[in-house]
Every structure is written in C-alpha cells, then in structure tokens.
Amino acid sequence: MKERIKKLLQQPAPHPTKNTTDHTAKNSRRDFMQKATLGGLSLGAFMNSSVEETLAFTTQRVNRYSAPTDLKITDMRIAQVGNVPLLRIDTNQGIYGLGDVRDGADKRYALFLKSRLLGENPCNVEMLFKKVKQFGGHGRQGGGVSGVEMALWDLAGKAHGVPVYQMMGGKYRDQVRIYVDTPTVKDPDQFAQRMKGRVDKGFTILKMDVGIGLIKDIPGTLTNTAPWGEMRGWTDREVTSYAQTMHPFTRVQITDKGIELLAEYVAKTREHIGYDIPLGIDHFGHMGLNSMIRLGEALETYNLCWLEDMIPWQYHENWKTISDRLDTPTMTGEDIYLKDNFKALIENRAVDIVHPDPGSAGGLLETKKIGDFAEEYGIAMAVHHAASPISFLGTVHAIAATQNFIALEHHSVDNEWWEDLITGIEKPFVKDGYVKVPEKPGIGIELNEEAVKEHLAKGEKYFAPTPEWDELRSWDRIWS
What we know:
Blueprint: H1 2-9, H2 22-38, H3 43-48, H4 51-58, E1 73-81, E2 84-91, E3 96-100, H5 108-111, H6 125-132, H7 143-160, H8 164-167, E4 175-180, H9 188-200, E5 205-209, E6 222-223, H10 247-250, E7 253-254, H11 256-273, E8 279-282, H12 289-299, E9 306-308, H13 316-325, E10 330-332, H14 343-347, E11 353-354, H15 358-361, H16 364-376, E12 380-383, H17 389-400, E13 405-410, E14 422-423, E15 430-431, E16 434-436, E17 446-447, H18 449-454
Parallel strand pairs: 4-5, 4-13, 5-8, 8-9, 9-10, 10-11, 11-12, 12-13
Antiparallel strand pairs: 1-2, 2-3, 4-16, 6-7, 14-17, 15-16
Helix pairs in contact: 1-4, 6-7, 9-11, 11-12, 12-13, 16-17
C-alpha cells in the first residue's frame, strides 16, 4: 500500500506549466467537499473508495513538478520584442525561467550558451554562471550571460517556492525607489516642463541628458568639430565616426558660450522642479577630461546628485582626477561586465557612485556583489536599466537584497504597452516613484503571451524552437 501511495504522489500534476498557490489548494479542498455533498463524489462513495482514488482526487492540483534535485534544463528559446530579446529556459518538470538580453544586444549572445546548459540543474545558479561567464563581455556583450543568469534565478525560485530576493539573503526594503530619464528637446523651457511632468507623476529622482548634441549646430559653442564633417556620424557604426571614437581622442572642446547654453537647460529645470528633487545629468558628449571638468564646475551651483558617464569607464585614473576636482558626485558603470572590473574604480575611490546594469554586469547576484563590494569602501550604488519588465523586476529583487542602494532607472516611462508584457503583478507596478518588491516565487511574474506576440520585432516568432544551438562544438576550458 505504501508503495502505491508513493507512486501516486510522484505522478505529474495536471498543469505542469502553472505555478500552484495556496489559493488553488483551497479550491481543491472546496471542490472536493462540494462534490462530496452534491453527488459528484458522495460521502458514502468517498468512505468506500480506494486509497488510490482518494489520493488522486484530493491531490489533483498539487504541483509535483517542483523536485529541485531532479530538475533539468531541456530547452532555451527567444521571443524578441523591439530591440530586447526575451529569454525562456524550459525544464523537464514543466516550470520555466524568464530573463532578457538587454536592449540593443544580439540574441545570439544568449543562444550561444544553450548547448552548455542543456541537461544541467538550473538551481545550481552560481556553478552554471561560472561555466558560461567566460562568454560574456562589456556592454551589450554581457547581455547573454546576464539574461541566462536571471532566468536561472527565476527557475530556482519557482522550484523552491521562494522569491529571488530570499535566495540572496533577504531584503532590506519592501519597495524600490525609481529614477527616471527624460528625452531631450532643444528648447530649454520645454525641456524643463517635461522634467516637471516627471515630478507631477510622482517620481522623486530625475535624470536629464544635457550634452553637446543640443548645441552642436550653434556657432561658437564647440571647437574641433571639422574632422567629423560638421559633427555628422553621431550615431553611425563606422569605426572612425564621432559616435565610435572614445572621448579623449575626438579633441572636441566646449567653449564658454557652449557651457553657458548647456547650463541654461539645468537652470530652467531647477526653476521648474526646485531643489528638493535630486537631479542627475547624463550624455555629455565625447569630450576629453579637461572640458568635462570645466563643464562640471559650471554645473556645481545646481546641486546635482550625480554626473554620469562623463568619460569611458576604462579610464580609472582620469575618473579619479575628475572626482577629486568636483564637489558634485560622479558615477559610471552601466557597461562594465563582472565585479572584478569594478574593483579599480571602487578601490581607488575614482567615482562616488557605482552604476551597474544587471543586463551587462553578469546578472542579479553579480549586481548584488558589486553593491556589497562598493559598500565596503563607503561607495553607494545606483542601478541602470533599459530592457523589458522581466529584468526590471528581476533587478528589483537584487536591489532589495543590497543595502547601499540609491535608485533604479526606469527607461520606459513613456512606453504605454511596456507593463502589458507581463502578468501576475498588481499594475501599475511603478507607482508614485516606487515599485513594490514581488513576493511570489522566482521573479514573481509571467508573460502576457498576447501582448508579447503583438509587439514581436519584424520577422521574429514567439519562442520558436532553437535546435541549431543544441550541439556543443568546442572545448571551452581556458587553462592547461
């Protein structure tokens, strides 16, 4: 008899892809009693039924697809929405994990990893991360490893029935503060009104993009623009274009007139929003260290909360020079892959705030590790984000578990259908400048299949099979 009961309890649940909740368990008991009293299963029949029949009925909604030690990865697929590839990792037990490959990254950065994950237990997140992290890189090249890591945490949380933050040591906060970026307009008054509109929507930290792109067509504002063909090539991909040339090497310089015009944007914004709201600046343009210091000094009167990505993150000593010269806090890091590559900035106190993006940094746990390491040196952490709601809310878990956190970027405020991509969470989930930490297992959300299909990128399919990525073709060890 015991063997028969054991076999029954090991049988699959009727709907393996659905997560079972206390609510469904209560429904099962209620359904049973209703059927027993209404004749679906008479009380007498129940009393005379076999143990097998009784167990089969009373446990029909129990999720038996959550045996973590037996969980195996069986597939990985992509559904690309806009410029963000959504990622799904499937298992032999019907549960799956969700992640995304950050904005503008190639989905192949993730698909390349599939053959290295098949057959593995997704609950071994750190071990699998170490297995694949050699295939990531800075910027968008970290998107594949980072997206996979997020999906593994989602899977592990679902398998164990706990939210991701709990597996990272618990949470410091129940809600996460948001900072919001704002698209630029060339008229300073209109730009300031847009910034005030963010405050009216409840956001409590703002960021504005104030750079030489706003003044590049005004004579007398910039020096040494001629080599760029009247500053053409700001967004093209040619190696010799302005956009692809690192800041110290353009030798573009800003004039006093240029500084005065850029400062006007910040002054107008402060007039509209006041000084109670923290205000950060980003996207200055590709100028060298000296021009950045001059501009930074001119903006100090506006009491800014940070100056972001003034020069590329790789130039640690130059960053320290800027930070030592300015009273305004400095910040960088959204393109840095792995904690180890933050060490020079942190150990030398070259910046005042580190700014990882989990979609590039290596995922959720790596972001927490970056924050924890910065905390040891008295350095705070803000978090960059520009992808789907999946990684946004995944990031919320990592942030909840990290103490020295300031704010998380919301880059899709003006996208009306962005929140529609997911379900399983109260909406709007960004409200009055904060987002609640999800309490359901894993990241705590599911995809809205209909919305995702509606917004698929041209030529893309909804999680189409990817068998061409199943076979491992290389020996990956990087030491002898």
